[in-house]
């Protein structure tokens, strides 16, 4: 066998062997392979790639941090100059406050909630032993509303870097609370003497300067904002105190009693809302939520009005009114009624004829 034939035989055998190897590999890996192992390997590869992507995303923040805002920045962005801006009248604010107070007074009159609350407070466990059961004889929530005015924005002295709104408030009204009770003398033995007492305290005038600001809350961990308000120490409060002491020989409007009650009311206000003391209210979150969504009820007055107008037109057209043209209105109503009755007879005649042919009388 020469060299040419031997090389041909080698090439033929190598070619056939490579074809057999390719067929065996195709049968093994593409026909008889386990799909679970392939899918698990592909999933592991995808999970590894996604974890690498997540690690990359965690390193970069999606929410960009804005630069810190200062008082000067807020004032410049809102175009407010604390030195040259004119004080505001707050007429719109007075209307909103008046609506809220009017609703509060209406609720207090209807369900008697304020009477029950006051009875629980004044007859609570802190009532002195020398007082008998206190009975409320008069409650007047007033008829006027407070007027806020002269609002201006100033930097806060207590909280550096914060702003506060100062506004004047004035209320001229008669807000009255009247009570009756008995003073019990328990020495040297219980109930030695009993002295009836009647008191009536009325607020006639209140005026002062109210300071409002927003500061971060220090009492919780949610870092929520609180609304703080306080009064300047130059407020003015006018009271009217009427008293009646005794059962037979009564003492009316005792000056010492009036002075004692006025001093206690002033002390109560000074200890709670007069600077440097202040009251704070934690504000809720203002983000819209599904559970706080409401919808106004549909207004059906338009539909009822249209139904009433349609019934009026069907009953006889325009209702005759007083004034000029009343007679013409009546004449047109009569003529309109006659034309409609004739047209109704004309439309009703073919219908009665058809009914007569379809249903003959026996």
TrEMBL record:
Location in the cell: Endoplasmic reticulum membrane
Residue segments, region Disordered: 35-68, 292-362
Regions of this protein lying in the Cytoplasmic compartment: 33-362
Keyword annotations: Endoplasmic reticulum, Lipid transport, Lipid-binding, Membrane, Transmembrane, Transmembrane helix, Transport
Keyword Membrane: yes
Originating species: Orbilia javanica
Membrane topology reported for the UniProt record: Single-pass type I membrane protein
Entry similarity comment: Belongs to the MMM1 family.
Stored InterPro entries: Mmm1, MMM1_dom, SMP_LBD
Function per UniProt: Component of the ERMES/MDM complex, which serves as a molecular tether to connect the endoplasmic reticulum (ER) and mitochondria. Components of this complex are involved in the control of mitochondrial shape and protein biogenesis, and function in nonvesicular lipid trafficking between the ER and mitochondria. The MDM12-MMM1 subcomplex functions in the major beta-barrel assembly pathway that is responsible for biogenesis of all outer membrane beta-barrel proteins, and acts in a late step after the SAM complex.
Record has NAD as a keyword: no
Main location: endoplasmic reticulum
Domain of life: Eukaryota
Gene: MMM1_1
Identification of the protein by name: Maintenance of mitochondrial morphology protein 1
Low complexity composition bias: residue spans: 35-51
SMP-LTD domain ranges (all copies): 86-284
Skewed-composition ranges (Polar residues): 332-344
Biological processes, Gene Ontology terms: mitochondrion-endoplasmic reticulum membrane tethering; phospholipid transport; protein insertion into mitochondrial outer membrane
Record-annotated membrane-spanning stretches: 12-32
Lumenal topological domain residue ranges: 1-11
Bias (Gly residues) ranges: 317-330
Assembly and oligomerization: Homodimer. Component of the ER-mitochondria encounter structure (ERMES) or MDM complex, composed of MMM1, MDM10, MDM12 and MDM34. A MMM1 homodimer associates with one molecule of MDM12 on each side in a pairwise head-to-tail manner, and the SMP-LTD domains of MMM1 and MDM12 generate a continuous hydrophobic tunnel for phospholipid trafficking.
One GO molecular-function entry: lipid binding
Any Pfam family hit: MMM1
One GO term describing the cellular component: ERMES complex
